[in-house]
Fold this sequence. Notes:
The protein has 79 residues and is mainly α. The chain is 58% helix and 5% strand. It is built from 4 helices and 2 strands, in the order H-E-E-H-H-H. It has helices at residues 10-17, 28-38, 44-62, 71-78; strands at residues 20-21, 24-25. A two-stranded antiparallel sheet has the order 1-2. Helix 1 (10-17) packs across helix 3 (44-62).
Amino acid sequence: xxxxxxxxxxxxxxxxxxxxxxxxxxxxxxxxxxxxxxxxxxxxxxxxxxxxxxxxxxxxxxxxxxxxxxxxxxxxxxx
Length: 79
C-alpha cells in the first residue's frame, strides 16, 4: 500500500517533484531520490503514473501549434 496521507494524491506528489526539469520529463533517478528523501513508498504502478504525468506534461508544453487542442478539451471530447 502507498504511504500517502489520506488527503494526498499522486498529483500532489508530482507537483512536489516539480512536474519537469528544464522542459524535460522527470527521470527515474529523481523519483527514486524523492522516495528516499521523503519516505514515500508508492507502488510501481503509481510511480509509473507520476513518470507518465511528467512526460505528458512536457509533450503538451512543447506543442506550439496554434491549432492544438488543450488537454482539458481533449478530456471533455473523450467523455
